[in-house]
Amino acid sequence: MRGFYQVKQNIRPSVKFKLKAKMIVLISILIVGIFIIFALFLQNFIEDTMEDQIGKRALSVAASVANMPALKEAFQAENPASIIQDIVDPIQQETDAEFIVVGNTESIRYSHPNQESIGRKMVGDDNERALQNGESYVSVEEGSLGLSIRGKAPVYSDDGEIIGVVSVGFLNDDIQKVIADRNHSLWITLSLIILLGVLGAIYISHYIKKLLSDMEPEEIAHLMIEKEAILQSAHEGIIAVNNNSQITMMNAAAQKLLFKQRVGEEDYSGRPIQDIIPSLNIQDFLDNSRSFYDREAILGETVVLINQTPMYNDEMIIGTVLTFREKTELEGVIHELSRIKQYANTQRAQTHEFSNKLYTILGLLQLNQNQEAIEFIKKESKLRQKWQRFLTDNIADPLIHAILQGKFNQANELGVHMSIHPDSQLSYRFSEEEKDVLLTALGNLIENAIEAVKDQDPNERNVSILFTDMGEDVLVEVEDSGSGVAASNIPRIFEQGFSTKSGTHRGIGLALTYQAVQRIGGQLILEEGDLGGACFIMILPKKGEDADA
Length: 549
Prior knowledge:
By secondary structure, this protein is an alpha+beta fold. It is about 45% helix and about 20% strand. The chain contains 14 helices and 14 strands.
């Protein structure tokens, strides 16, 4: 950028840590911290899930073996071990179980992977629940082969008597190996994600530094202080304007010249430059990259000489800088003209409704109708207070209150008489979803009603609203005195893209309202209203809590 930007400081403030390095470190720490916490949680979750699944698997195999008819018959043989071992060996191989042990009511083994252990008592002392209570369960105990997760199931005879127990186990060491393998894959994946996150942090920090013209925050702050000091110490007024002809900066000299005092940034920031200098077409100079010097203009009540110089960034115009000084020789000559222009600028900033009311009061006072002016002011004040009091007393939700107040102001500005039925009441406490739908629907329906009547005769611009939460539903009616909806258009009135109005981007609001109302189980109905126009009835079922509860 030429001009201001080319005054890039030769002496930069000392910076202990560069912004780029700080961003990379902080973002990386955040990413690593989040993923380590997530990994530890996921690792613990995987371990618990694996152990739970293996326990259920062991229990399922034990129950299946215990219910085998061949196994039950083997218990009746003279030497059950010789038969049972042959039954469970294939099952053990197929299920990858570390062991399938079948024992009698005395916990004497009839089968075991180690042939020498057959005939000996089962180890672990965890058979009581199966043998005494007939329960099927999972236990973790130290056995002859080591610590294992076991599924226990009782064996019943045909008479329903417990005659033995089946124990299916998976060694804890084997389970931990499987968990370790999965955790290894998890940590590798998360490490790659962390690496990508760090690379992303490097890219983001580089991009932000590029946006900041490779300057550190301390340098930017220092430059801003210097720039502010230079601007405020200058005796000439300085105004910066962007490409949209909006004011972005104004120094103290300009503020005193324009407003006779120092003002806040909100009083001028974003304001069109034409509001201050109506005779100056800045946009024309911006479009043609032209400058001018010592041009006469009127600022407030002062005649000034203005200089204009475009601002550039990478050979692209991003705005312009205006500098001006008083031309005191002409102040007395054009004092009255300046006052008129200032008054006109102030009036343009007021809303249409306020201007009309002000002119009405001014007219009454000029005619010496002081009492009528007072009555008019009281009437306007009473109307607004009445409306405000009615909304406060009859509507519990502040957002619904606010949208109705805003629409009332909009209607007044357009000369539309908007009324609410005196029996209207809305104390129901809406859920967040219901409230969003109601606000959307009210805004669109009232907006459509106002548009439908704003071109009518001033005495026929009426919009009526009724709402009530008595009964099981919330009922809202919005009616207008417009021309209504033709019968041929009624079937398509809620279709997206369909509209009876001219222009582009129409047919959206009513369709969205219809979809939103249907989404929460409500209805939106079009009828012919008593005022002669359209009457939209919205019915919303109550699902939340009542406001009086």
